[in-house]
Amino acid sequence: MKNSRGIRLLWTLILMVWGLPGCSFALVKVAPPPVVGVLLSGDLPLDTLGFYDRYPFIRFVGSQEDASLVQLSDDEILDQAGKVVFRVNRYDVFTNDSLLHELETLILPRINRDSLRLCRIVVRGAASPEGPVPNNRMLGRRRVATLTNFLRARMSVPVDERNFTTEAVTEDYRLLLTMMRRAADPDLDAVQRLCNRHLPRYEYTLLKRELQRLQGGRLWRRLLKDYFPELRAARVVLFFEEAKPQKETPEAIETPEAPMIIEAVEVPETPELPLAPRVLSIPRRELLSVKTNLLLDFAYVPGYDRWCPIPNVAIEYYPLRGHFTYGASLDFPWWQHYSDHKFFQIRNYQLEARYYLRSGSIERRTPGEGAAFRGLYFSAYAHAALFGICFDADRGWEGEALGGGLGVGYVLPLGRKGHWRMEFSAQVGVFFSGYDPYQYENPVNPYYRDGLYYYKWTGRKADFRERQYRFTWFGPTRAGITISYDILYRRWRKKSERQLPASSIGTEGWRGASFRDHELVVEE
């Protein structure tokens, strides 16, 4: 080591004297001495180490065995893992995601250039809890696969499939509780109790249902806004092996430098990791229900003196959001008994809008967990009718009517899925009718028999005008005990599409209608 210091000192003096004016020396080529013990072969340069220190999700360990023993806590996942956030119900990544952009343009090219030895990759992906459980399970697996394939396709260092540690979490309540604890959330204890009760038995649906009921739904809405976006993510931690130090050599032997030869080698594209085929049953959201009023189906009409079922059918349309639904109904009895001079013929068309006190928004009412719109509601309606009613040979009326009013009702789901429902309703309002009475045989000459029905008009025929009589009613207009069934459901995707929809929350995520209440998705 003393010889090395002397040679460096001599070299410095030569350079200093060489720069003095008026001095000339014969230049003798002297090779600079090797620096022994300062930078060891195989170590990372200082600037390289500083580069990786900027990214806490890149770790260096002593060996692959050491990497396999590392257990990452939820706090470490939040603090250190690289995070890629996904959109709602999507597993394809943003093209402008900052982490992916840095990985592709800076980090992975640097790793490839430094020829680091990869020991382990930990990828954890999950979905936020507001969607259906089968769909969230699929999203977690897909998001893990998306990030894993992204890394694999862009790393030229050797990648052993055994180095991958992947965890697809259906709904990451552990991370939710960790974030709430860090934020000193006042509702942490309530959420913790429910998680401790249901998660050991994997009762995700019951857990979400109870969370949605806490504080009248306010807690769920706050979790949806403050915490759930952070759960729609995949997180990654990379482990590389540290360079092993070599033994110091007392003297360095100068060797001629070999010319650097760069050859272009075609690297085959790494195929994506295939997922095992799996069929998932994804519940669909109800779109349209069909219903009938049982009180009209088993009606007895006074004056008609017999059971007189009134056939009726109604439909109700359910939007994805809000409190309002929209419906239409038709009543169409058409009974005729000529021998008894009895007729009961009505066409009643009605439009209705309902406001449910309980919101049916899909963010709060997960498909597959019962009817979205249920409970108490208020309604407004308008209707138009044609009628021809006759109770005997001397009492008959025909005409038209218009009306409208308000109503109140209650919807009670039948069964766990809620596709069958019972409704109890009442309406009050006003209707205006223009009509004409009629009778059997001629009212002017009762002895003239021709078997026809005549308007009750005894004046001149030229003076007759239809609908000369008026009738106005204000009061109860309808009562109902109605049975309804969901007949149409919203599709998650079209038959021609191979991927899941863009979004299950926005209306753009629903594509068409189907009679099936669930959708089978085959994961390839």
Set down the secondary structure blueprint.
Blueprint: H1 2-18, H2 46-53, E1 58-61, H3 64-69, H4 74-80, E2 82-85, H5 98-114, E3 118-127, H6 133-153, E4 164-171, H7 173-182, H8 188-198, H9 204-213, H10 218-226, H11 228-231, E5 233-241, E6 278-283, E7 286-293, H12 294-297, E8 300-301, E9 306-307, E10 312-317, E11 324-331, E12 334-337, E13 342-356, E14 375-392, E15 395-414, E16 420-440, E17 453-455, E18 469-490, E19 513-514, E20 518-523
Parallel strand pairs: 1-5, 3-4
Antiparallel strand pairs: 2-5, 3-5, 6-20, 7-10, 7-18, 8-9, 10-11, 11-13, 12-13, 13-14, 14-15, 15-16, 16-17, 16-18, 18-19
Could you please describe the fold and organization of this structure?
By secondary structure, the chain is α+β, with helices and mostly antiparallel strands. It has helices at residues 2-18, 46-53, 64-69, 74-80, 98-114, 133-153, 173-182, 188-198, 204-213, 218-226, 228-231, 294-297, and strands spanning 58-61, 82-85, 118-127, 164-171, 233-241, 278-283, 286-293, 300-301, 306-307, 312-317, 324-331, 334-337, 342-356, 375-392, 395-414, 420-440, 453-455, 469-490, 513-514, 518-523. The strands form four sheets. An eight-stranded antiparallel barrel has the order 7-10-11-13-14-15-16-18. Strands 1, 2, 3, 4 and 5 form a five-stranded mixed sheet that branches. Strand 15 and strand 16 form a beta hairpin. The longest helix is centred in the N-terminal third of the chain and has 21 residues, at 133-153. It is rod-shaped and about 120 Å long.
